[in-house]
Amino acid sequence: MKILLMILSFILVTTVLFAGDIKIIVNSKNSLSTLTKAEISQYFLKKKKKWNVGKVKPIDQKNNSSIRKQFSKKILGKNVSEVKKYWMEKMFAGRDNPPKIKSSDNAVIDYVKSHKGAIGYVSKDANTDGVKVIKVK
Amino acid sequence: MSKFLKVVAIFFIAIGFTLPILSDEGDIEIHGFGSWGMGKTWGANKLKQKKFYIDPTTGAPDPVAGKALPDEKERVNNYQYGRSKLDMSNADFALNISGNPYDNLTIFSQIMFETYLRDTNIYLDYAFMEYMINDFFILRAGKVKQPFGLYNETARVGTIRAFALLPQSVYGNQAMTGIAYKGLGVAGSYYTDSDWGIEYNLYGGSLLLDRTAEYALGFGLIDDVEYGELEKNVVKDYLRKIVGAKLTFNTPYSLEFGLSAFASSTDVARKGTEYDNKMYNLGAFLRFSKFGFEFSSEFVSSRNYLMVFDGEEAVGKYPDITTAFYTILSYRLDKYQIAFMYDFFNYELAPERPASIPTYDGTMFLLNDSKYLDHQDIAIALNYWVFPNLVFKTEYHYVKGLIFARPNHCNGEFYTNFLSNKSYNVGYETTHLLQFIVQFSF
Fold it and tell me: Which residues in chain B have their CB less than 8 angstroms from residue A39's CB?
């Protein structure tokens, strides 16, 4: 019974959604469980810089990785070049810096685990124990 | 050790001290951008100044006892990276450093290194702190790039646009926009869940801007222009008191549009007295970008109320009115891009204020009558993007007017003679430019 309750509570707080082959993850202390594509895009592009756990800390993957290309196209609605241009405009104007880049799913998960305001994306096969997977509306 | 090396050394020592301090609690970001370009101008844009004599003591024309002016050869205009003889000495580089010692506090800085016509300049482009209270209220203090129009804050960054340099009408040195303000500002944004958004900036302080040398001469900001200086065409000026605002509307359809404005007081010294002149600039901008297409357009109008003198007596303030407009259309397919630009500028001097610059024949040249105060640039660019951070650009510009295209190697007197198109000058107003530029960022 204990095990069943644990499984049920786990399902309640971590609803998994596959945006194609991508999982959106946040820190386990984050109370959010669902986000729209537009909201995820706003957090990654830092149009919204604060949320329920303080400052939003998006984390990106390598420019030439296939998961970044998928994420940019499906969630941000731009190709990687357009996203890079967007960030060049922001950072050289002294407005903001682009998200930090991690080189693998595991590195993204480690970052999200250790930063309360973090949000990242990983491939659907990644082991996401210790972080919360967000349902995309 | 040269001045250049000293500044570079001090800068990197400062970074060395700063990095460990900030790294303890926050993050450091280092980025940069740069460009190198060369170009050639040609066409019927030559000036033949006949041998001309002036009395060296009175400055009056005197063909018998006067001294011959040195300028007899043909002139070809300079424009952007182009010279009559191919010049490969134009390069710039910016180092951008920001630190985030606490979640709500960010420090932004950028230093520029540039060589132009064999001169090297190093300066602090901006350095300011930003304290975020929430998305809608962010406080900024320091030297901050002026938020105006689409590109003023990123005016030197070549990897975010199709043409190597921005349209001269809005972003040239006619004070339609400033460079950076020193003071306080607030900024913020609000986005709905469906991605409609509004961003605002309000600021006040002093404003650094570029002036043309003849403007600076005419209004006493500088005493004289060195021979050869005017081709650079730039004199730094400060507006001591300004307030400004920018409002941008963002849509979910890759369309943004908005308004920018600033108003200022300019204290211009004239005949030993300072006069408080007023300047009002208002601009509108629009950009659509989707599927490799980009369309951008801006309009800016400036009214510069300047004191008019009758002899020694100040008689009132009248406005010079300047108008700038451009439109750019580009299409990019993978690594290749083609772009077109039309750029327009008009300078209308107050009829009550005759230009005060004398010509060598002893008469006053009325700039008011000059068609040379107009500018039009029709251009095409073919670009190859190796990466989003590295682009090779080839451009052709057809330019009418001499307010941004400048005669090579001239001083103030030479230029006004050129503009006045007197009998001893044969001036043409057309410039052709072909230029090649490499631009990068990281």
Answer: 193
In this prediction the ipTM stands at 0.82
**pLDDT score of B120 more than 50:** yes
Contact with chain A for residue B27, Cβ under 8 A: yes
The dihedral through the CA atoms of B199, B204, B209, B215 has a sign that is positive
Q: With cut-offs at 50, 70 and 90, classify the pLDDT of residue B27.
A: confident
> In the A/B pair of chains, how many CB contacts fall below 8 A?
74
Whole-angstrom distance, CA of residue B256 vs CA of residue A61: 28
The per-residue DSSP string of B365-413 comes to: P-GGG-GGG-EEEEEEEEEEEEETTEEEEEEEEEEE-SSSSEESS--HH
Question: Over the stretch B246-303, which tens digit does the pLDDT of each residue have?
Answer: 999 999 999 999 999 999 987 655 545 556 778 899 999 999 998 899 999 999 999 9
Look up residue B357 and give its DSSP letter: P
Residue from B139, B148, B142 nearest B170 by CA: B148
Residue B143 pLDDT greater than 90, yes or no: yes
CA–CA distance from B114 to each of A88, B78, B122, B185, B331 (Å)? 20, 18, 6, 28, 30
- In this complex, do A50 and B126 lie within 8 Å of one another by their Cβ atoms? no
**Chain A contact for B276, CB < 8 A?**
no
At B47, the amino acid letter reads L
Q: Residue A127 sits in a domain of what CATH number?
A: 3.40.190.10
Chain B neighbors of A93, CB-CB under 8 A: 145, 153-154
Number of domains in chain A: 1
Q: Give the span between the Cα atoms of B347 and B419, in whole angstroms.
A: 14
From CA B137, how far away is CA A96, in angstroms rounded?
15
Q: Delineate the domains of chain B, giving CATH numbers in brackets.
A: 3-441 (2.40.160.10)
CA distance B153 to chain A (A): 5
Which domain does A18 fall in, by range? Answer: 2-136
- Its pTM stands at 0.83
Which of A37, A34, A1 is CA-nearest to residue A15?
Answer: A34
Percent of chain A with pLDDT over 90: 71
For residue B250, give the H/E element and its range.
strand B235-250
Q: Give the pLDDT confidence of B349-391 residue by residue, as tens digits.
A: 777 765 444 444 444 445 555 555 789 999 999 999 999 999 9
Distance CA B334, CA B387 (A): 10
In sequence order, the β-bridge partners of residue B79 are B82
Strand B27-42 vs strand B87-102: parallel, antiparallel, or unpaired? antiparallel
Task: Identify the three-state secondary structure at position B77.
Answer: strand
CB-CB under 8 Å, A42 with B96:
no
What average pLDDT does chain B have? 80
Report how far residue A119's alpha carbon sits from residue A114's, in angstroms, rounded to the nearest whole number.
11
Contact yes or no for B145 and A97 at CB 8 A: no
